[in-house]
Amino acid sequence: MKFQESTKPALPEQSRSCHFCAWLLAFWLVAVGSPSRASENWPQWRGPSFNGSGTATGLPSVWSATENVAWKTPLPGAGGATPVVWEDRVFVTSLDDETKDLIAYCIDRTNGKILWEEVVGIGFSDEGRGRNMASPSPVTDGKKVIFLFGSSDLVAFDFDGKQLWKRNLQEDHGPFHILFGYHASPLLYHGKLFVQILHRGHPIDGPGTDYEGPRESFLLAIDPETGKDLWKQIRPSEAVEESRESYSTPIPYEGNGRPEVLIFGGDCITGHDPDTGRELWRWGSWNPRKISHWRVVPTPVTSPGLIYVCAPKGEPVFAIKGGGSGLLDDSAIAWKLEKHTSDVCVPLVYGERLYVLDGDGKFFTCLDRSSGEVKWVHRFTTQGIFRGSPAGADGKIYLITEEGEIFVVAAEDAFRQISEFVIGESPCRSTPVAIRNQLLVRTGENLYCIQSVD
After folding, report:
1. How far apart are the C-alpha atoms of 44 and 28, rounded to whole Å?
2. What's residue 339's pLDDT?
3. Count of beta carbons in the 10 Å neighbourhood of residue 154
């Protein structure tokens, strides 16, 4: 396909109606071969349904250093990336604390053995400020795995560790200007690899001698087979300074029979045509005063007909009606949550409920995902803050603090805590992964496989 670059968003034509579940089935068939195979794997950082939930069963509710630990694999340093899983292969990243190497790992899910590891680049870590170049999560289609690091090194391997292609996005598209570094994960969807770069567009510490002027934010579509650009969609924003920056990840959505890629940041959320990058719609009204430090972190999540976005710095969680066209006003808001919202952690959609974790305040809120009715609010009594996002499976929700304290909560209409215990090994910023009858937990030192042992 010929590479194309679009410099301005175009407005959409009238979209067609289609049932969400029919699209979801079609998406699974395209992305991973069949719905059953999709649900059995965890191919990207928010799981098979892009919402933090999985279909694993028989998961343990409690474990310790000696109880219900099937295996643990030491890693040479911290990393915020969530492991991804395809059948018996686990893919995870790490920064080596001593050498500063950025490393891609393939680990056997059955025994924790490292099958292969490859140094992809050189990075750095500033854990006190949450800056770690091993933060973007890998993504896989069952044949290849693609790793992206905060250094902008992007590389694809087959499952035997053979490098298929490699490139550096900043070498190709210019420097990224993001205060805490690049953290967004890539997305595989519609036969393309999507990467978003939402940044302030100029050096944070002021222009240097090699400054060539401001650079626009953009959405990039890449051929996952070759690593070559397919198109580049400029993504304009009226936000200023740090508010132009985003640490979220692009995700797919289907509204009125129309596939979209959602991009969140720069004081707005936009939906894009996955074939061309064309902007289909745009909404954002939480920052009318143009406050300059309101970057966004949480990735949007969706359910049929609704898109949930977390405005920054204590602003509401908005449920936006999907399937819109053009510049949307606030009539697109279905409902909003105004208390105990999330500035960092991504909400969880599990069953008919939406769960919102306020990582700093330590409040956990359960809502009806359709109406926004609050079912319960609980505040965890822990000294640690939350930076990883909640994961749901087997009727349970798993949460881990940055200090390695784990909470297991029942996914019910009334709050019920099942267990609480400490694994330690800070910093723990990765999200738990529920796969088959196992739970994978990435700490600052190890990758754990938790499994009930008879």
Report:
1. 13
2. 98
3. 24
Strands 353-358 and 417-422, sheet pairing? unpaired
Of the candidates 44, 85, 102, the residue with the CA atom closest to the CA atom of residue 299: 44
Compute the distance between CA of residue 242 and CA of residue 246 in angstroms, rounded to an integer: 9
Task: Give the helix/strand (H/E) hosting 263.
Answer: strand 258-264
How many Å apart are CA 387 and CA 47, to the nearest integer? 17
Q: What is the pLDDT of residues 260-284, one digit of tens each?
A: 999 999 999 999 999 999 999 999 9
Encoding tokens for residue 183?
A: 């953290």
Residue 353 DSSP symbol = E
Within 10 angstroms of residue 255's Cβ, the number of other Cβ atoms is: 27
C-alpha dihedral, 20 to 306 to 440 to 249, nearest 10° = 110
SS3 89: strand
From CA 39, how far away is CA 271, in angstroms rounded? 25
Would you list the DSSP string of 281-332?
EEE--S-TT--TT--B-SPPEEETTEEEEE-STTPPEEEEESS--EE--GGG
Domains in the chain with CATH codes:
4-451 (2.140.10.10)
Q: 2-35, pLDDT tens digit by residue?
A: 445 544 444 443 333 334 444 444 444 444 444 4
Q: Are the C-beta atoms of 259 and 271 separated by less than 8 Å?
A: no
For tokens 């059955």, what's the residue?
110
Task: Return the SS3 of 173.
Answer: helix
What pTM was estimated for this model as a whole?
Answer: 0.91
Residues of the chain with pLDDT under 50: 1-3, 6-36
Instruction: Tell me which residue of 269, 330, 256, 324 sits closest to 296, measured CA to CA.
Output: 269
CA pair distance 280, 284, nearest whole angstrom: 14
Residue 118 to residue 104: CA distance in whole angstroms: 5
Chain-centroid distance of CA 345 in Å reads 10
Handedness of CA 436, 439, 444, 446 (dihedral sign): negative
The predicted structure's pLDDT at residue 27:
46
